[in-house]
Amino acid sequence: MGRHSTLKISITVPHNIEKRCKLREKLGDDLKKYNFRSKVEKINRASQSSQYGHCLQVDTVNVGGQFIQTIKDVQNRSPSESSPPNSTTQHPSPIIDLTDAPELTDFYNRTTERSTLKQWILKDKTRLIAIYGLSEIGKSTLTLKLIEEIQREFDAIIWRSLSHTPTLSTLQTELKEFLAPSQPNPLPTLLDTFRHTRCLVILDDVQSLFQPGKLAGEYLSDYKDYGQFFKQIARTLHYSCVILLSWEKPREIDTLEETHRYTRSLHLKGLESEAEEILRKAELVDEENWPELIELYQGHPVWLTIIAATIRELCDGQVSRFLADPPLEKQGQREEIYLGDVKPILETQLERLSDLEKRVMVWLARQEGGIDLVAKLPDREFSKSQLWDGMRSLGRRGLVEKQLAGERSHFVLHPLWQQHCLELQ
């Protein structure tokens, strides 16, 4: 999935040739994605001296999964017709920059997750949301679909990837230039901009700010100020929303969720029945066996797509044959789960783990069933504090799950991860 979809800008101008030439002169030949809005607003400010002057209206449409901005030369509204930034009235023409967003391709419903996010953003006025989960589980796709549905509730929407690890100062400057460009009396901070204009900001690849080989959510030495910035977003009064997309949950989110009601997190897991569409597209048969296959590969859309291709190639598309073929049995090991081309993806995820997390994961893989952390635990190689720190960190990465067993919760490692961890020994 590509990281750099292109923001297309089409310009619709009056048929009058004189006006068309003037508009071209105003926009200039140096039109770029970063100065686009500032050029438009500069023209609009100049036109406001006349009650019935012309200004540029920016409309946004969705064509083939891409957001396309259209500029029209329209008649200026009088100031009395304008809505305040925090008005509940829908905004007819938000400014949108999705140049850093991946292309929206296949989307598998996610009705519950979309409904939850819309509730948080539109009803609860949540300021900071973290969506975290395994690599390529569908975080970006879900967010792009959400934007389609709520875009007119905002004045401006911008998507930025942090994969190139910009400093906080650089990011804030770039966001301010887009959200509040070229103002005669510029607002002093980005948070002031969030109060003045209702913005939706998506920060993707947040895990790039964290240190690999450390517990989840530990910032790189030069990026610790991001943690304070996220706290300010949650604690400061404004009507904007910032969404963080990450492989791992930022540490401060846990505390903010408990102390500030305007912070939420969503652990995005695999697909359930919606994943059957992947198998249907791959022309697999034996539908009665599809739920077992989906569960075996955690409903992960990319993993299932890879395995479906293998089933089509080696088993003539018959899921029953793929599941029933006897595994190569090894003394003292569980049945083998075929990983194939899924294995490099798992290894990429595990490369970020600390030594403690790896030890805890291997120990957990040796256990039968879930683990009650307050019970007496066999063959423990670490202290209680180490075990609890490791389990919390693995939970922030979505690698262990908590399940209710009777009156107590047990922590579980999925069989696929169990096998891979034991193979790495």
From TrEMBL:
Residues 74-96 are annotated as: Disordered. Residues 115-206 form the NB-ARC domain. Residues 78-87 have a biased composition (Low complexity). InterPro entries: NB-ARC, P-loop_NTPase. This is NB-ARC domain-containing protein. It comes from Roseofilum halophilum BLCC-M91.
